[in-house]
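To: structure desk
From: M.T.
Subject: fold request, one chain
Message: Could you run this one when you get a chance? Sequence is below, nothing fancy, just the single chain.
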Amino acid sequence: MKTSFKLALCVLLGISTNALASDCSALKACDKKICEINNQLSMAKSDNNQYRIDGLNKALKYTTEYCTTDGLRDDIQDKIDDAMEDIEDHQSDLSEALSNNRMDKVEKYKRKIEKENDKISMLKLELADLE
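Reply: Done. Structure tokens follow.
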């Protein structure tokens, strides 16, 4: 009974979060980032989460003052570079697991590599959206 209530609550929150996120979908770059922060701020206010409100107000002020498309592009590229480094590390671990015939580890590192590749794909979409 409790599990189904939690599941229903998660689905409801997911739907409401997606609805809010769609309000920003037509915007680009810094305008989109500001819109997303404002959406999160509205949710924090409805939850009466003062720590989150304070943090988001700080983020909103910083973003409004300093956000540039080039800065966003650099941030995304840094994330892509970090993910590429992670893939290299996982590839090394995968090779070691293969040489030691540790199939449980092989699957683990394959999943990690796939997850990082998915992350890179999403980041590249974000990067293309800035153009």
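Reply (cont.): The chain has five helices and no strands. Let me know if you need anything else for the meeting.
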